[in-house]
């Protein structure tokens, strides 16, 4: 029952995935033989290359290879889990024994157990997620060096560097359970980033840029990444303070999705059944302006978080999260759904690709609509109260006058309440940041409290 094959040594990754699926089924059969009423197993192998350079010198070159199996067994409604990184037969036998021993001594939990058999995903879908990059360490170093050099050369005010990095990885995973479901997944991920410092002494500013994609051919060029990092960094030089007050606030696209992240946290099953959410009993109530909708599309080809089954083996499907401003549902896996007396939404493991309605062309239009106010390009701290929705975070960005960026600002705190913030969204731009599974553009809020140093 051992397995020693390496992804890179397998001429056919699909064939290797089949080997892992066979191994997973063998483990489940052994759980059954020990008396388990149900069992599920996740088996994965990840490997990749990562390089970091700074000031024209190589700092690190790392190759990683992580392999493991996570096993859960159920004896009725008693549950036991165990895991191992060793896929040799003796280690797998010991892992099965450990999981079964734990289950026999745990208390019963009425929500425990596999998802219902009829909910299992029925048809495998090719989501075009597998795009391995045949890149060696020398080539990776060369690209990182090019990004950093382009950034340092872009502007004389760039005085130092935090470095540039390139990473490339691939993952093969199998989830199987005793319903007979076996799901196979293969995916790749590649990224290139650069972080720079501008100015001197107490007037230094730091910023960065990065590009990420499933297919390396879709990455921005090293020169483009470096120049974008430089542009963002020098734009932050000589920040000024602003007076404390209530102002319109425009979140850049990459910052706007953090607000959706707070929504997702509040409507996730774990927060809800623990009653640690400000959105308890909120399904069917208006949370946003009536023009705003959010749609989850799990089976989007080349989506950054696409999947045809969730972590419970439940089939995924396109569905609304918000429709016409109204919260349509929660985000539930099997366990959390049972705790709440509801049905799973196919979100064990989290939300998949989420798109948010735009009603404006882009950031330039939103700046004009805002007139005067704060453009937020950086957020710091975790000052969000999950129970009340109270929001207070450090921020930096730019002060805007008459629709034009006037000067950079930093050392600010922006505050509000998420329920009120959601309702006061005035516009969302079409300038979507594609580097996330949450696809949305810049977001304009009518008013927030902004605390400056004056």
Automatic annotation (TrEMBL):
Ranges where the Metalloprotease TldD/E N-terminal domain occurs: 39-103
GO molecular function: metallopeptidase activity
Pfam families from the UniProt entry: PmbA_TldD_1st, PmbA_TldD_2nd, PmbA_TldD_3rd
Domain of life: Bacteria
Gene Ontology biological process terms from the UniProt entry: proteolysis
Boundaries of every Metalloprotease TldD/E C-terminal domain copy: 244-452
Gene Ontology annotations for the cellular component aspect, listed alphabetically: cytosol
Residues covered by the Metalloprotease TldD/E central domain: 131-237
SUPFAM superfamilies: Putative modulator of DNA gyrase, PmbA/TldD
Residues passing through the membrane, by range: none
Similarity comment text for this entry: Belongs to the peptidase U62 family.
Name under which the protein is recorded: Peptidase PmbA
Organism: Arenimonas oryziterrae DSM 21050 = YC6267
